[in-house]
Amino acid sequence: MLQNKTLPTYLLMISYGRPNHVLGIIENYKSSIKPESFSKFLIIENTPSQQLHLTQEFLIKNDIYYEYISNSNKASLINFCFKNRIPEEEALVILIDNDILFKKDFILNYYNEAIDKGNKYYFGGALEVKVPNDIEEPLIPYLSISALGKSDNAFIKQKNPMFLGCNYCVFKSQWKYVNGLDERFSAGSKNGLGADESVFQKKLKYVGFKPYFVKNNEVQHLIDTELYKKENVLKRFKNNGFTHGFQTLITSQKFLKADYLKRLFYLFKRVLLLRFQGDYLDSNFKYYYFLGFLKASYLYLKIGNNGSYLKGLINDSVIYLK
Fold first, then answer.
1. How crowded is the C-beta side of 248, counted as CA atoms within 13 Å?
2. Quick one: 182 and 275 in the same domain?
């Protein structure tokens, strides 16, 4: 439990266009219940043609800070905000995306849990999705959580949950402790790696911070029907393989990256076995994942391991919490 009962609290959203969504989230935010120590809703827009024209009077009245920054990397924008737009070291920062809506007590729920549990924990909630009725049924097992959602019950069953990037919150002190987000892993990164929030949470867990799931604090994902097209699902599988492969390489401590090579050989055998069994749909998805995993070796040879998320902590040293 935190001794200081007044906790500076921020809502942070990195926006890539979708101005109508952003306006909807602002209305959602205006009607929400906030603690007395709530500071600001930080909105960083990244798409110049999609900037909103909000009056200074409106922004001040509603405790909103709106800024356009030309940078296509989501993780670097989040790091920028923590460093330059959130001055309080003890601040609680709730991170959302620009394609969600949240409940009236969403901000307050996170605040109350943070006050109760303290800064040895970071927090997350569930994701609600209204799945279209016309999607191809064989594709359902291959859809992402962002396309299917993840309920309270699904999170509760997990002992060590990984929260979604559109619904989690951390203390600034935690962000600083692990040297921020790894900017190689991010939407818009020059290398094409994803999973910025997953890698960030792995850093937090690695030094001893614990995830805490907040019940009944889900967000609703305003889905894009493009998520459900087969070509995009295949593309996501390949990108997952690419990201997972690179993570395996930079965290490997074995000679000649033997664990990566072992995994690569296993993935290749699995594709061949599925083809031999006549399961062409599953083998096709597994093949795309394998291609991404293989591609990671080229990136590793190209850029190496500068800034590994297991080594890139404060002062490049690993410090475990007591």
1. 21
2. no
Residues 89 and 55 in one domain: yes
Distance CA 210, CA 174 (A): 11
Kindly write down the DSSP assignment for every residue of 15-44, as one continuous string. Answer: E-S-HHHHHHHHHHHHTS---TTEEEEEEE
- pTM of structure: 0.90
Pair (262, 287) in one structural domain = yes
Alpha-carbon distance 216 to 141, whole Å?
Answer: 26
| CATH number of the domain bearing residue 197 | 3.90.550.10
List, for residues 148-159, the tens digit of each pLDDT value: 999 999 999 998
Residue 81 gets the label, from left (phi > 0), alpha (psi -120 to 50) or beta, of alpha
Residues 45 and 65 in one domain: yes
Residues 168 and 211 occupy one common structural domain: yes
Q: Which of 221, 219, 185, 222 is nearest to 201 (CA)?
A: 185
Q: Of 167, 182, 173, which is closest to residue 94 (Cα–Cα)? A: 167
Cβ pair 313, 203 in contact under 8 A: yes
Q: CA–CA distance from 305 to each of 17, 228, 300 (Å)?
A: 32, 34, 7
Give dist(CA 289, CA 245) in Å, integer. Answer: 10
Backbone angles phi, psi at 206, to 5 degrees: -60, -35
- What is the distance between the alpha carbons of residues 283 and 163, in angstroms, rounded to a whole number? 29
Q: pLDDT tens, 3-57? A: 556 899 999 999 887 888 899 999 999 999 999 999 999 999 887 767 788 899 9
In sequence order, which residues have a C-beta less than 8 Å from that of residue 162 and are 6 or more positions away? 198, 201, 211
If you compute the radius of gyration of the chain from its CA atoms, what whole number of angstroms results?
A: 20
Q: What range defines the domain where residue 282 resides?
A: 230-303
C-alpha–C-alpha distance, residues 275 and 292, integer Å:
18
Of 174, 194, 226, which residue is a domain's last? 226
From 107, 97, 88, 127, select the one nearest 30 (Cα to Cα). Answer: 107
Tokens at 20, concatenated: 């109508």
